[in-house]
């Protein structure tokens, strides 16, 4: 009997012992907040099952609330600063998640449609951009930008829509990325694809150990030779940027 109790105790607690604390960072200012309930609902079902997931929503909609979700007050900056300045937002609230095991950032207008699990765990995880899995990516070509990638550099072009890794690694890389964005701004330069351009420059020098295919940033209305796991939803870009 005692042995049986001990056995049941272990079976019940082993999953808890191996569960990781994972944060999902979502910037959703202005109209983007409307995507968040659906995104979080889909993540509750498909994102890191068996782990302890917490959502952090960076938004100017302070009335927004959702279970297991922390609101990080964050002003709308206007296009393209809403995307470019995301590194700054993640850094600003780092104390909230610096002790987590893993941190991932994803666009607000995404939807998990299949399990995205332990395969994303690593020091640095990046997803090959769906538009460039068999061609050269749209790197920054202005040598004056700190996101510049020379014609002979760059193997994979990664999307800015979903990436992350070990919390300590993700938070450390933010310092470099923020300094580069700020320096570019001082020089009146905005890299062609904003934060995504800087991420790609950074990953050339600091390659991700987990590289995933475009299943994890799959444009909703495209037909790609990959299973769908995380959809990038169709949206009227112009309308969203107003
Ligand atoms: C587009 C995407 C942009 C950027 C660009 C890179 O498809 O909407 O956010 O990633 O590709 O070329």
Can you put this structure into words, describing what you see?
The protein is 31% helix and 21% strand. It has 242 residues and is of the alpha/beta class. The protein has a seven-stranded mixed sheet, with helices on both faces. Strands 5-10-9 form a three-stranded mixed sheet. Strand 1 (21-27), helix 2 and strand 2 form a beta-alpha-beta unit. The protein is globular. The protein starts with a helix and ends with a helix. Bound molecules: beta-D-galactopyranose. The site of beta-D-galactopyranose (GAL) has 6 residues, from loops.
Short description:
With 242 residues, the chain is an alpha/beta fold. It is 31% helix and 21% strand. α2 links the parallel β1 and β2 (52-59).
Please summarize the sheet with the most strands. 7 strands, mixed
Ligands, ions, cofactors: beta-D-galactopyranose
* E-strand count: 10
Q: Note the beta-strand portion.
A: 15-25%
**Spatial separation of the terminal alpha carbons:** 67 Å
Oligomer: single chain
Number of helices: 7
What is the helix/strand order? HEHEEHHEEEEHHEEEH
Q: What structural class should be given to the helix and strand makeup? A: alpha/beta
Keywords:
7-stranded mixed β-sheet, 3-stranded mixed β-sheet, single chain, alpha/beta, 242 residues, binds beta-D-galactopyranose
SSE blueprint and pairings:
Layout: H1 2-18, E1 21-27, H2 36-46, E2 52-59, E3 69-73, H3 81-84, H4 86-92, E4 102-106, E5 110-112, E6 124-128, E7 158-166, H5 167-186, H6 194-205, E8 210-212, E9 218-219, E10 230-232, H7 237-241
Parallel strand pairs: 1-2, 1-4, 2-3, 6-8, 9-10
Antiparallel strand pairs: 4-7, 5-10, 6-7
Helix pairs in contact: 4-5, 5-6
The structure holds beta-D-galactopyranose (GAL).
The site of beta-D-galactopyranose has 6 residues, from loops.
């Amino acid at each position: 009997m005692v042995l049986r109790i001990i056995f049941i105790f272990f079976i019940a607690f082993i999953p808890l012992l191996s569960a990781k604390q994972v944060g999902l960072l979502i910037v959703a200012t202005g109209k983007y907040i409307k995507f968040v309930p659906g995104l979080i609902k889909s993540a509750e079902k498909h994102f890191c099952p068996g782990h302890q997931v917490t959502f952090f929503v960076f938004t100017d909609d302070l009335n927004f609330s959702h279970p297991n979700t922390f609101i990080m007050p964050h002003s709308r900056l206007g296009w393209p600063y809403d995307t470019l300045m995301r590194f700054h937002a993640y850094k600003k609230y780092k104390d909230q998640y610096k002790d987590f095991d893993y941190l991932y950032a994803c666009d607000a207008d995404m939807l998990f449609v299949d399990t995205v699990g332990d395969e994303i765990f690593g020091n640095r995880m990046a997803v090959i951009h769906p538009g460039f899995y068999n061609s050269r990516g749209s790197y920054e070509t202005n040598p004056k930008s700190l996101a510049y990638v020379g014609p002979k550099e760059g193997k994979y072009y990664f999307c800015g829509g979903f990436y992350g890794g070990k919390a300590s690694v993700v938070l450390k890389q933010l310092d470099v990325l923020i300094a580069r964005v700020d320096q570019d701004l001082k020089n009146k330069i905005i890299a062609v694809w904003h934060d995504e351009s800087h991420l790609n420059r950074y990953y050339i020098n600091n390659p991700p150990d987990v590289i995933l295919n475009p299943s994890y940033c799959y444009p909703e209305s495209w037909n790609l030779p990959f299973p769908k796991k995380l959809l990038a939803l169709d949206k009227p870009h112009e309308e969203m940027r107003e």
